[in-house]
Amino acid sequence: MLKVFTKSKKKKYATIPSEMAKHDVPEGIMTKCPNCKKIMYTKELVKNLKVCFHCQYHHSMNSKERLASFLDENSFEELNAGMISENPLNFPGYLEKLEKDRKKTEINEAVVTGQGTVDGHPIVVAVMDSTFRMGSMGSVVGEKITLAIEKADELSVPFIIFTASGGARMQEGVLSLMQMAKTSVALKRFSDNGGLIISIMTHPTTGGVSASFASLGDYNLAEPGALIGFAGRRIIEQTIREELPEDFQTSEFLMKHGQLDAVISRIELKEKIATILSIHQQGGDIGW
Amino acid sequence: MVGELEFEKPVIELRKKIAELKDFTMNADVDLSSEIEKLEARLEKLESDIYDHMKPWDRVQIARHPGRPTTLEYISLLFTDFFECHGDRTYGDDEAIVGGIAKYRGLPVTVIGHQRGKDTKENIRRNFGMPHPEGYRKALRLMKQADKFRRPIICFIDTKGAYPGKAAEERGQSEAIARNLFEMASLKVPVICIVIGEGGSGGALALGVGNHIHMLENSTYSVISPEGAAAILWKDAGQAKKAAESMKITAPDLKELGIVDEIIPEVKGGAHKDVKAQAEEMDAILHKSLKELRGLSEEQLVSHRYDKYKSIGEHSMIKEFIGVN
């Protein structure tokens, strides 16, 4: 027994890879899952729609990846791709920040809209992109979404939106706030005309976006583990001075509290949406 | 066997005896086949004696059988592409009621129903099929959606009643039930209700304002459980059997009272003996019912429902009376 205490510890050596070895593995070839910390090939992960093989964690997707994974191949036709923001409040540094994000993300604003098909069903789709200004909603995001809704109305096809947003865009002030009303007004008209609205909330969907179009679907769906809520966790904790539960404002939390129709894994998403679309198809007589 | 009912005991015992004899003939060198034949003939007679002359209390037992098929079982057998929708978008998701969209013979429909559990664990999760207000509000949300997209609605009724509890009262159990009765009146799509188990009071009716109401042969529909009625009338829940007999709660009774449109025949001994065969029986009546209602316009559907409920109730007038004037 005593040996355990007396025995001197073995010396431990650290292996420092040589410069050569370091360059054997180029940047980005492997991805570490932020949830389970396991490491996997990026290529394989992308093939699995960026869903972790081990813990099913849904890595965030940008708009290009989303469209590629969700729409039928080569079916996408973008609308209003060239629309860009002004600086209505002359907010210092805003235009520069936009320019930087346009370069970084290769898209012009935080939402991409267009027409396409899902399993052959024609739809109008809007995909928010959290890599552009955290997916925040300013005038352009509001306008592009509204135009997309109007397009769906004109074509009498379903409107599907993937939300991912930190909320309203601070640099556009109250104009951002009004985009909540603008998009909601458009959705109401579309809905009254019999239009089908499907909202798919992805990580994160918060603030003004969650309090407008994201919550107004005929079907409100979400990806597993997404953060969805109105006021941020820290704000609530500081306001009410109370600790919040672990799963607070996750998709699963919202589902339990009656806010979502279903939480759907990205792997099954396209198939499930196709089912919903086929049930809503204005088909001819089917032997009835 | 688990779930044997008191009144079927003679049948089950005889069946056991026959099985024993068969076993014996197989293993020993005695030929008892003529005996067996005789017994089998007797079994058949006994079965029809018992199952064709079921008393109300026997039907109550079958309606409450733990193995009785539930809403989700019928959904999986009658519909395709079922997509379950959760939540009332306000407070919670009540699993005592399930609902969603599906196709019935290719036709888009909305299906809603009370959902009991099949075992203790599931029963706890589903609160034994006794909904809270959020359950009824989820149902209403789905009905309004069906109205928007012009889908017929099919409701399966199977509950002991709306849950009597503190939380349910706080959130407005009465309002939730009342709201459903009110809103279901104006739905512009066909609404078909099928009682598949127990139809317990307002909690059942909240999914029950339909153009057609059908009942499985051994289901019940009542203003209160027989136990509750016995407790109120005679201060003795033990007299439930007597209450069941006098309250007219079985499918044939309700048909006679003009509340139920069609009685769906059950397989011998109750739906739990053969779910698939039972679903087929249901399918035939549902198909006929839906076909008929699809022939009506939106206005006709609403007034059809109005007239149906207007005509329920019995009354008479007397000539000599003292009025307020």
Walkthrough of the structure:
The complex is a heterodimer of chains A (288) and B (325). The termini of chain A are far apart. Chain A has helices at 2-6, 19-24, 42-47, 63-70, 94-105, 139-155, 173-192, 207-210, 233-240, 251-256, 266-279; strands at 30-32, 39-41, 77-79, 111-118, 121-128, 159-165, 197-206, 219-222, 228-229, 262-263. By secondary structure, chain A is of the alpha/beta class. In chain A, strand 4 and strand 5 form a beta hairpin. Chain A is built from eleven helices and ten strands. Chain B is an alpha/beta fold and 325 residues long. Chain B has two domains: 6-53; 61-311, 2-enoyl-CoA Hydratase, Chain A, domain 1, CATH 3.90.226. Chain B has helices spanning 9-27, 33-52, 56-63, 71-78, 120-125, 133-148, 166-170, 173-184, 201-205, 226-234, 240-246, 251-256, 275-293, 298-310; strands at residues 80-84, 97-104, 107-114, 153-159, 191-200, 212-216, 220-222, 262-264. In chain B, strands 1, 2, 3, 4, 5, 6, 7 and 8 form an eight-stranded mixed β-sheet that branches. Chain B is globular and about 85 Å long. The mean pLDDT of chain B is 91.
